[in-house]
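Let us work through a complete example step by step.
Step 1: write down the sequence.
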Amino acid sequence: MTVHAHHAAAPTAPEGLRVSRDGYTLVPVAAPAGTFAFRIDGPDGAPVREYLPQHDKDLHLIVVRRDLSGFRHVHPVLGEDGVWTQELTLDRAGTYRVFTDFAPAATGTPLTLAVDVHVAGDFRPVPLPAPAPTAEVDGYTVTLAGEPAAGQGAHITLSVARDGRPVTDLEPYLAAFGHLVVLREGDLAYLHVHPGGAPGDGVTPAGPEIAFHTELPSVGTYRFFLDFKHGGVVRTAEFTVEAGKPAATAGESGHGQPAAADPHAGRHGHHGHHYG
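Step 2: predict the structure and record it as tokens.
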């Protein structure tokens, strides 16, 4: 497979479109077949060796083909030389986007850097599924409620059921009951969202609902990937979501009056600002 980087975008660009930011650069490293290796070079040009853990891991690696199929969320191993390695077999031709979520210990500021990985062969794109409020995975049904709009915060919930019964004993996965990655069709602009509350805090229920606060950067089609853990297994539910224009101009209701404050705003974080 051949690796190419998408170079730095404008400072106002959404996350996931840059290979370098704030002096930090994602650098792929030659590795044996079936392994993806890379390092994060810091402002001094040396590989970063110390990271501030984010949701139990020093770095999160997200991989998806550019047709938004084949999603994976894995956690590579850091060597003493500052090189990360991850077993990664990409057995279908096409271009994959590889995202790295991390926070250098020197700054503590979360960053998302990404590169493209090209796999030669007969590329056969997978059509994007139509928008639907439910997704099925391994006998589980996950239902999405909420209507995200471009440039406007939205409260959404994802409810997990099995055999028609709500799941109320979700298990903690990476210090949360769920992790949501959102990717925009086309350029794969990226959000990594974590729910409000935390397992064991005495107030956050272990299902069936997992609540998130999202803000999508533009009108368009998005793919939502929810990771959740139950019965000792992590599963991923996938949704196609259409984000339209806000119902009213920002700061106004439909009658030209100031809109009521979103009671959920600020309760949940997305990567690129903070983890919550």
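Step 3: interpret the result. Confidence is low (pLDDT under 50) at residues 5-11, 249-276.
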